[in-house]
Specification:
13 strands; catechol 1,2-dioxygenase activity; dioxygenase; single chain; alpha+beta; five-stranded mixed sheet; globular; oxidoreductase; metal-binding; Catechol_dOase_N; four-stranded mixed sheet; Protocatechuate 3,4-Dioxygenase, subunit A
Length: 332
């Protein structure tokens, strides 16, 4: 076993108390050569220690918290992302997305990825039917993609996924043989893509795991409003992860993962034009969702993130420098 010599620059840490332990942890972590990581560890240590001191955290509560996180790891796998679900239900996912993918008019707003995205969706052509659900109400989805100047964007990879008419995703089926209710399309030369889905219905997030138990103890309901997920990806443009929510869902204003935004609530209509029905190969009366997505370029998003970071540091009365594009207080 190799042994490391204790750095001589660190003062002896003896007689640690509730008042000085945070400072001593900062001293040890200050050896980190990466300024961004050093800053992150400084702040999370400060907040965790202040939380324990402020609440007078008991040993039993600390042990319960450790066990809770352990159980989240144990139930998670490639198809079930319980840690993402925890982050979603605490509002952290939505916050991180808003910070890292800021939007300005007329760009489409983002929302949470959610715990049900997979990487096994098949590449399909425009007009494909994504579901095998015989009980669902068919929905034609017709969308366009443009940049902030209104120019169409072709060849955008569009990853789409949604639950079935019973409110379940394919990954929740114990007999799942492959992807269903999901697919990957590419926008055409007009920046358009279209596919056959189903009218989304509200559904409960998984309640059989640690996060579900947490929600029950908090007296929170688990029901998400119906929605269709979209991930739009093309080199040179800021990744957009979002979802569209049909208006009037009973859980529209109380989403347990805080994902609903006014700009993402849509009105469904119906296909009433015979020419449109013929063009897209659907029956008259088929429910219809149309939406115009607007992407920011990578540079537009970087500039906006930098501007927001500087403003956030100024509110803390701190000057900022950037390390690998990420903010660090100049005095750290």
């Amino acid at each position: 076993m190799s042994r490391c010599t204790a750095p001589s620059s660190i003062p002896p840490m003896k007689d640690l108390t509730t008042d000085n332990i945070t400072e001593n942890v900062h001293i040890v972590n200050s050896q980190c050569p990466d300024p961004r990581l050093r800053y992150l560890l400084n702040r999370i240590t400060t907040y965790l220690h202040d939380f324990a001191r402020e609440t007078r955290l008991s040993t039993d509560e600390w042990q319960s918290g450790i066990q809770f996180l352990t159980e989240i790891g144990q139930i998670s796998n490639d198809l079930r992302h319980e840690m993402i679900l925890l982050s979603d239900t605490l509002g952290l996912s939505m916050l991180v997305d808003s910070i890292n993918h800021p939007r300005m008019q007329p760009a489409t707003e983002g929302t949470v990825l959610g715990p049900f995205h997979t990487h096994d969706a098949q590449n399909v052509e425009n007009g494909a039917t994504l579901h095998s659900d015989p009980d669902a109400t068919p929905l034609l989805v017709v969308c366009s993609i443009r940049d902030s100047a209104g120019k169409v964007i072709p060849n955008v990879k569009v990853d789409v996924w949604e639950g079935d008419s019973k409110g379940f995703y394919d990954v929740q089926n114990p007999d799942r043989a492959g992807p269903d209710g999901r697919g990957v399309l590419v926008s055409d030369t007009n920046g358009e893509f279209f596919f056959n889905a189903i009218v989304p219905v509200p559904y409960p997030i998984p309640m059989d795991g640690p996060v579900g138990k947490m929600l029950s103890k908090l007296g929170r309901h688990p029901n998400r409003p119906g929605h269709v997920h979209f991930m739009l990806d093309k080199e040179g443009y800021d990744l957009l992860i979002t979802a569209l929510y049909p208006r009037g869902d009973p859980y529209e204003t109380s989403d347990p993962v805080f994902g609903v935004k006014d700009s993402l609530i849509v009105d469904l209509s119906s296909v009433t034009d015979p020419n449109m029905a013929a063009r897209y190969g659907v029956e008259l009366g088929t429910r219809l969702l149309t939406y115009d997505f607007v992407l920011l370029t990578d540079q537009e998003a970087r500039d906006l993130r930098r501007k927001n970071a500087i403003e956030a540091m100024e509110k803390q009365k701190r000057k900022v420098v950037f390390h690998n594009g990420l903010p660090v207080p100049a005095d750290e």
